[in-house]
Amino acid sequence: MLEDKFSEFVRIVKKLRIECPWDREQTHDSIKANTLEEAYEVVESIDNKDYDELKKELGDLFLHVLFHSQIAEENNKFTLEDVIDSINEKLIRRHPHVFGDASVTDADNVKTNWEHIKLTEGRTSVLEGVPIKMPSLSRAFRLQEKAAKVGFDWEKKEDVWKKVIEEIEEMHESEKNETQEELEQEVGDVFFALVNYARFLKINPEDALRLTNEKFIKRFTYVEKKVTETGRKIHESNLTEMDKYWEESKETIK
Questions:
Q1: Domain boundaries defined on the chain
Q2: How many CB atoms lie within 10 A of CB 141?
Q3: Which of 53, 90, 128, 150 could be bridged to 123 by S-S, CB 3.0 to 4.6 A?
């Protein structure tokens, strides 16, 4: 039974906090980086379509939920039951079209209602709730998405692209007579505009760049391997040779 397995999981975590010297010493702060790492490993297993690994990584992430909850209970902050009650109440409250009398037409309508409901919960801005620690590309995407849900958005994709070009030109011009700080802001504007255009293409920029990073790693590793096969180190090569191997890598690494 699922209930029995869950109860056993909770019992194991509680026992670890009592009997394991390492587990007993941990705090929210000491394991928060590990919690984030586990979330990234979940994403990586999804990207790799490795479902056996995904099963394991979800277990690791689940462990952190229980572990943080146990630490909080020991410090009289909240309990695991409080965590479950909170998410249950939120899901019901933010899905009135499922648990109430509201009606929706499509998924976009659901997202719009979701943002409106958040404002009734005490938030003063639709932009609240996007974590500062979130990767900047993802954060830009979510900020734009939230603003769009209340109508603050471009009407045409073509105009968004014009804005991208405009920001690139401004960045290029700023190289001539602006300070490094001002140039940094212009580069940021370019990224923000590109994120916006990606949103109109229904592409998550964080996912896109992560995949491109992995592709770069695979292709450059191929270059290193080919140079090594000649008996030399990568720093003993030159751009012409490396570029030749790079072009070769494109044939097999897409």
A1: 2-91, 136-203, 207-252
A2: 23
A3: 128
pLDDT one-digit tens code per residue, 68-81: 999 999 999 999 99
Q: CATH assignment of 2-91?
A: 1.10.287.1080
pLDDT for 241 equals 96
Say which CATH class 136-203 falls into: mainly alpha
